Amino acid sequence: MTKNRYDELLTELKKYDSLAVAYSGGVDSTLLVKAAKDALNDKAVAITIKSEFVPLNEFEEATTNAREIGIKHIVIPFHPLDYPDIWQNPKDRCYHCKQAILSVILEKTEELGIKVLAEGSNADDLTDIRPGFKAVREFGVVSPFLSVNFTKKEIREISKALGLKTWNKPSAACLASRIPYGDIITKESLEKIEKAEMILSSLGFSGARARLHKNLARIEIMPEDFDTFFAKRERIVYSLKDVGFTYIALDLKGYRRGSMNET
User: Fold this and answer.
1) Within a 13 Å sphere around the CA of 217, how many CA atoms are in the beta-carbon half?
2) Measured between alpha carbons, how far is 231 from 1 in angstroms, rounded to an integer?
């Protein structure tokens, strides 16, 4: 069944003479890059945005994965804090950010002579609040996983079958998603969040989030990790205070996608 579904995806991608993939290095876009390479070989290219919104380790993983897949990989520097509609952090920040990013990527695809850009939204994403998806549609970017109705579970299963290291990688989102709407986004705040999450990861908390509320860090981890969190409480408090947080709180609902949207 897994092979049949992957073949459906390859058939979908073979419709295009050439294809660029907006590549973040996450579970979804890594499978899409692999499929693009398998379907179109040298007529496929992966394009990654390098910005202050993306943790350095995520960028490095994307670079490594693209090299192992064997696809041509282009990196484009992008500075979201140059855009007032982004750093002012309105509720539709993701829409403005996606607009700016897609403009930059599409400029590159035009330069390369590639007419189609693909991105990795899947069927489960349609149930979440995603202002950026409006920009995807406005720019005519294709979403192959939606065309073949792939769910996140299928993407992980197929990725595992293909031997992709990302198959069980936790969901990721840009660092700006840790900051409440309306709070100004600064380079310093992004660096503080990135350091805090690196600390939590080094202590064994996979996919942990450090949501920034002024001088308070609201930590989201999986509920099954609560006991471990409290066992390491003193070290966590000391380390996060050293990063610059005054208060450290554990969110008792645990990790969930888009918790900033709950307001």
Assistant:
1) 28
2) 43
As a whole number of angstroms, the distance between CA 197 and CA 188 comes to: 14
Number of domains in the chain: 2
The pLDDT-based confidence of 129 (bands split at 50, 70, 90) is low
Examine residue 253 and state whether it is found in any structural domain, yes or no. yes
**What is the model's pLDDT at position 128?**
66
Domain closes at, from 140, 168, 196? 168
The answer for residues whose C-beta is within 8 angstroms of residue 84's C-beta and 6 or more apart is none
Cα 216–Cα 54–Cα 230 angle in degrees, nearest 5 = 40
* Domain range for 130: 2-168
* 56 and 134, same domain (yes or no): yes
CB 18 within 8 A of CB 118: no
pTM, full prediction: 0.90
Q: d(Cα 23, Cα 232) in Å, to the nearest integer? A: 35
Please indicate, yes or no, whether residues 195 and 104 belong to a single structural domain of this protein.
no
| pLDDT band, residue 132 (cuts 50/70/90) | confident
Angle at 141 between CA 149 and CA 33, to 5 degrees: 65
